[in-house]
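FOLDING PROBLEM:
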Amino acid sequence: MFRREFLAASAAAVAAAKGRKIPVGLELYSVREDLQKDDVATVKAVAKLGYECVEFYSPYASWTVAKAKEMRSLLDSLGVKCLSTHNSARSFAPDSIEKTIELNTILGSRLVIMASAGRVEGLSGWKGVAERLNEASAKMKPAKLRSGFHNHQTEFMPLEGKRPMDVLAAETEKSVVLQLDVGTCVHAGVDPVEWISKNPGRFASIHCKDWSSDPAIGYKALFGEGSAPWKKIFQAAEKKGGVECYLIEQEGSRFPAMETAEKCLAAFKKLRG
């Protein structure tokens, strides 16, 4: 029954992606210094650039309920949505999960993404991470939230004969999102299009971060300036991946953070349309 429900939901998500404009947002880690100084002014500035949604990252987990409600009111006034959040593994712990659910519900989020699993020992440890994601998924389901995992380069590197990302994909429920960080995937030598095709319907959210093979640039490449095959990625994400939101993420560049965010959005719109 679960498999039939998942397949039906995946088909619906893919069909919906084909029939509507997929929003583009900003992972706010991209403007982290501005956010730390004044989160309200930063969110307003991001909205003014034309971003349709934002993804808050781990510091939001320390917010009070009142703070979360204030931020939700600000987002609503700007016409901007928070469709997902980035979280430490701690946010998925039994004594933290209820607050995580409450904050995400207030913000209007749909996806609660584990940004990093922290220190993990061996493949058995990665199976444990998958178990935690599954447990979180079950607890989040009544609130209409989904758990997910954000890859880095490490998870695509072989460990004891297998890649941790393959373990996570195989050991998690199909409803658990595999949030694709494109830049680290490419850096690891993995074809992002092939990865999407191998796991259809699991990429509700994609981090549009580029990577350059030039060691002097690396992750400082602006969107569209690196090695990622973006048009093929968009096609795969929308035909097979079930993408619901694209998120620009930038670790830094030769420009100030907000200018970087502006340039990346312009490049995204030019490439994606």
In short: Strands lie at 24-27, 53-56, 81-88, 111-116, 146-150, 177-181, 205-208, 245-248. The mean pLDDT is 94. The domain at 2-272 is CATH 3.20.20.150 (TIM Barrel).
